[in-house]
Design brief:
Elements: H1 4-23, H2 25-53, H3 64-70, H4 77-84, E1 89-90, E2 99-104, E3 110-116, E4 119-126
Antiparallel strand pairs: 1-2, 2-3, 3-4
């Protein structure tokens, strides 16, 4: 079960109720401003990551071996894109689960990553002979 989908709205609700208890309508305005700021920070991070990825070819990574060493189970697709600064080459059908992406370096070594629900579940490194 994905607790982030439950905990984030619950935290916002608790924050809003606490703000109401302390400051009435001014507290609600403060809580709404805080939530909007939090959303804007995440949106800005996403746009920055995707802007950096536009400057590289799809499926390119500087070193597949180093990329493989940095991967951790449960990492989000956005985090992996931020690490590679490149969008992965989609190997699976579009809009199907699991999503399979590949990143290749100049030596033709490549890492194939499998994402289920946007989270990294497994990956393999292939190095040419």
């Amino acid at each position: 079960m994905n607790f982030n989908k439950i905990l984030a709205p619950l935290a916002i609700l608790v924050f809003t109720i606490g703000a109401w208890q302390a400051f009435q309508w001014a507290g609600i305005a403060l809580a709404a401003g805080g939530v909007v700021m939090w959303i804007l920070l995440h949106f800005t991070r996403m746009v920055t990551i995707l802007k950096r990825a536009t400057n590289r070819p799809i499926g390119y990574v500087a070193s597949a071996v180093m990329f493989n060493a940095k991967l951790k189970k449960g990492a989000t697709l956005m985090h992996v894109i931020a690490m590679t600064r490149s969008l992965g080459e989609l190997l699976s059908e579009k809009d199907t689960q699991p999503e399979i992406f590949r990143w290749t370096d100049t030596g033709q070594s490549h890492v194939t990553c499998t994402f289920v629900g946007g989270k990294l579940t497994e990956w393999t490194l292939v190095r040419p002979e």
